[in-house]
Amino acid sequence: MVDGVLFEFKTVTGGIGKIEKHFRDSHKQGPNTFIRVANPKITRADVLRKLSGIVNSNDYCRGFEGTVIFTVGNGKTRDQAEAPRFLG
Question: Which residues form the domain of 79?
Answer without folding.
Answer: 8-86
